[in-house]
Amino acid sequence: MKKPEKKEKGLHPANKHQGRYDLEALVSAEPALQQYLMEGKHGEQTIRFADPEAVRTLNAALLKSYYGIENWDIPAGYLCPPIPGRADYIHYMADLLRENNEEITPRGSRIKCMDIGTGSSAIYPIIGIYEYGWSFVATETDPMAISSVMRIAEANPTLKEQLEIRPQKSHKQIFKGVLSTKEKIDLTVCNPPFHASAEEARAGSLRKVRNLGRNKTDKAILNFGGQQNELWCEGGEKRFITQMIMESKTVKNSCFWFSTLVSKESNLKSIYSALKNVGVSDTRTIDMGQGNKKSRIVAWTFYSQQQRDAWRDR
Ligand code: SAH
Q1: pLDDT at 156 over 50
Q2: Which pLDDT score, from 0 to 100, does residue 313 have?
Q3: How far is the CA of 145 from the centre of ligand 1 (A)?
Q4: In the structure, what pLDDT confidence band is assigned to residue 6 with cuts at 50, 70 and 90?
Q5: What is the pLDDT of residues 41-54, one digit of tens each?
Q6: Mean pLDDT across the stretch 89-112?
Q7: Residue-level pLDDT at 227
Q8: Is the pLDDT of residue 57 over 60?
Q9: φ and ψ at residue 247, rounded to 5 degrees
Q10: pLDDT score of 7
């Protein structure tokens, strides 16, 4: 099979998913993917991206081929993460830690990362554990998502060893109840629920499916891209992140770098002002681009320069 040379611009250089997917290799890793192949506009072979089952099977194939994950699955209707973009976040975080590690990317389970709202897929822990050998604490409020992550961990021994799941009992809390002032971790990552209401989440999903070339709306579409609870919270990502920043102050010595994805650029202004209000000692904004979708990570630390220098020795 001849693959047209079309380099996707903008992924982190360490990202394994540069260019087009090697569908042949993916089908041989996960034969079920075969039934979801179709011919694209230019006669090339592609995947029926508008079909949630196809996307789920593609993810299973990618995780098997690139991350050694067997039997990955998530409950129907739950957010199916686009893996290349999720991998980018982890690689940029590795760069951030590198700065204080004599320019060597820190690897191994002594690096401890907390994933806030790991979803049903545990996608960030999977990538961080398999790419860098870090260990993860994953928090989550949704019981169905938690059981799903437990199932995935159970089926993958390496993951199980390096992943701890900490249910967050309150939707209103981010670090409270899951990170104590006595604990020391190196990093937090988060892909926050970004819509402000269930309505907005539904509209977003519909738009996404239409962009993929489906005109008719049906039940499957309502399920596309995530269970409604996953995708929204009161006040949207702005409130979620602002709260995360305020709570991070209460555990400011427990973590070296806090971070989160920010999907709406217009939210940056209030995020920066919240960071200023809690008195962080440094912040970073890291732009990420995957195809036509732009996103960014905002990271902050309360560590002084002296504490940062001492971090490596610890
Ligand atoms: N990390 C996954 C899922 C992101 S969706 C991915 O990138 O694909 C956001 C997740 O945050 C949902 O699973 C939702 O249930 C969870 N969540 C919402 N509020 C939370 C809170 N206060 N603490 C922890 N998780 C929360």
Answers
A1: yes
A2: 80
A3: 9
A4: very low
A5: 999 999 998 888 99
A6: 95
A7: 59
A8: yes
A9: -70, -30
A10: 47
DSSP per-residue letters across 51-71: -HHHHHHHHHHHHHHHH---S
Span from the CA of 4 to the centroid of ligand 1 (angstroms): 37
* Phi (first) and psi of residue 136, to 5 degrees: -130, 145
Separation CA 75–CA 77 (nearest Å): 6
User: Closest ligand 1 atom, CA of 192?
Assistant: 9
Which ranges constitute the DSSP H helices of the chain?
23-29, 52-67, 83-98, 123-132, 143-155, 157-162, 198-211, 219-223, 228-231, 236-250, 268-278, 305-311
d(CA 131, ligand 1 centre) in Å: 22
Closest CA to 2 of 29, 26, 28, 20: 20
Q: Is 93 helix (H, G, I), strand (E, B) or coil?
A: helix
CA distance 248 to 114: 12
Give the pLDDT confidence score for residue 219 in this predicted structure: 46
Q: Is 254 in the pocket of ligand 1 (CB under 6 A)?
A: no
Reading the block at residue 142, the tokens are: 């949704």
Of all protein residues, the one whose alpha carbon is nearest to atom 10 of ligand 1 is 117
